Amino acid sequence: MGPAHRPSAILAALLGAALAAGAVPAARAADPPKSGVISRPKGFSTIRLVAPPGLSVFLGDVPVGTTDVLRQGLWLQDLPAGRYVLRVEKAGFESKEVTVLVGEGDTKEVRVLALRPRPTPTPAPPETAAAASPAPSAPSPAPVRAVILSRTPVAGGTLVTGIASSAVDALPLIEDLKSECRCTPALESMTKRKDGLYEFRVRLPGT
Hints:
Elements lengths: L5 H16 L1 H7 L7 E3 L5 E6 L5 E4 L2 E5 L6 E7 L2 E8 L6 E7 L4 E5 L14 H7 L13 E9 L2 E8 L2 H15 L4 E7 L5 E8 L2
Parallel strand pairs: 1-5, 2-8
Antiparallel strand pairs: 2-5, 3-4, 3-6, 6-7, 9-10, 10-12, 11-12
């Protein structure tokens, strides 16, 4: 081999020695970590999250990255040994939490296959909303103590019909009828109506 080619042969030999000594891997180790790898203080523990891409990942309340396609999720490396709460989130979906316990030197794999879509509230139709509201209560009847509605002549006397707020309220009116006819009125009926008033019938004997 001529002298012009000797520098190339020496350079090739030096390159081979560098590869054997591990110089090139040392240079690669200085490169920044690839996407999807989160470094933590040295503790020799690793959590591998296997999940669809595009999920936001949290350790407790601290955001630590987003799952990607190349890594098929996210690697959390060099974590201190201990217990971690791993949470994944995505807009429009319910978040999911997983508790992971890793010892020193452990690698724990956590799989999140899918998140459940967050339900969309359905507005109630107008008729349903109206039905849900309480129906207005019926107006209370006007206070009535006791009133005579009619006097009808019948065989042997007069039939008096009236209404009262209660059965007790009808008694004074019946007592007044007693002094009016100078007789003893006969109570024929006392009925409670749907409106809450009491309808009564009293027969006054003929004189």
